[in-house]
Every structure is written in C-alpha cells, then in structure tokens.
Specification:
It is a single chain. α1 (99-110) packs antiparallel against α2 (112-129), α1 (99-110) runs parallel beside α3 (134-172) and α2 (112-129) packs antiparallel against α3. The protein is elongated. The protein has a domain at 99-169. The protein has helices spanning 99-110, 112-129, 134-172. The longest helix has 39 residues, at 134-172. By secondary structure, the protein is mostly helical.
Length: 179
C-alpha cells in the first residue's frame, strides 16, 4: 500500500507559498523589542490635532499656531443649532402659545367652569399680545359651555324626577282619619 501523503516537514516544490529554509524571511523584532540596526521602525500615527505628513508631490497643509481651546467651533449634528446661536432668524421665531388657552382646553374637559373662565381670559390675552392658541381657547370655551349646559340639564332633570316621585308617593298615602 503506497502512501500518497507527503511528509509535512518537507516543503512542497510545486507550492510557491511553502516556506523552505531558503525562503524564510529575516527575523522581525518581537513585540516590546527594539528593532535591530538597519531595520526601519514601524510608522507612528500623528498626534491628535496635527495633520499627517503630505504625500509625495502634494503641498504641505498650512500650519496654524497651537491654541488651547479658545472659541473652538465644533461640527454640529444635522439641523441642530450651535450653542449660543439663535435657532431662528430675528423676527421669525415661532409665536408662543398662550398658557391659559391650553388650560382652557384641558379644563373644559375636566372641569367645565374652569374651561369657560380660562377660555374667556385667554381670548382677551391673545387679542392683546398676539400669541398663538386662539383655537384651543375657543375649543375650551365651547366644550366648557356645552358640558356645563349638560350638567345643568341633568340637575334639572333629576330635580323634576325627584319631585314627581315625591308627589306620586305623597298622593298615594293620604290620611283619611277614619279607622
């Protein structure tokens, strides 16, 4: 029986990548060892803030004096205003929403009389100051009026029902005096 597997210790003459004694590379310094005389040290990365050396045939970048963080501008994320900068052009800032208009809308749903009072006051303030929120103030006022009217009708209805029940039970139990 013949063995078709070559000896792993002998290099294959047909393999150009096989390392033989004549193809061994010169010894490189191990990690932590200084390079031997005649060998180039590995390239070092440039320090932070310094430009890398120019490539062959390219002009060198301009050199600036070394500054220690005075008024440095950093790149901002997309759409974000820079610190200290105004986010809108002067005169074009979005109008402020009237706080009482917001309270009128919420109060109109939770406590109807609050919505009515805050809605009236906020409409007057909006006319005077030009703030946003007129729609919320009107909605709070209308919801407050409707819910207050429904509560008043409910209370009137309950009073009528209680009077009707009371008069019906009173008519059925009259005292005749003859026993």
């Amino acid at each position: 029986m013949s063995n078709n597997h070559p000896d792993p210790n002998t290099p294959d003459p047909n393999n150009p990548y096989a390392a033989g004694p004549e193809q061994e590379s010169p010894a490189e310094p191990q990690y932590g060892q200084a390079p031997q005389y005649g060998q180039n040290p590995p390239p070092q990365q440039p320090d932070y803030g310094q430009a890398p050396p120019p490539q062959y045939g390219q002009p060198a970048p301009p050199q600036y004096p070394n500054q220690q963080y005075p008024n440095q501008q950093y790149a901002q994320p997309y759409g974000g205003p820079q610190y200290g900068a105004q986010p809108y052009a002067p005169g074009y800032a979005p109008a402020k929403t009237n706080v009482l208009a917001i309270i009128a809308l919420i109060g109109g749903i939770i406590a109807a009389p609050v919505g009515i009072v805050c809605g009236i006051i906020s409409l007057k303030q909006i006319d005077r100051t030009g703030e946003e929120g007129r729609g919320m103030a009107k909605a709070g006022l209308i919801i407050g009026i409707v819910l207050t009217a429904l509560w008043v009708l409910y209370i009137i209805f309950m009073i009528v029902i209680l009077v009707a029940i009371g008069s019906a039970s009173g008519a059925a139990t009259t005292y005749s005096g003859n026993y």
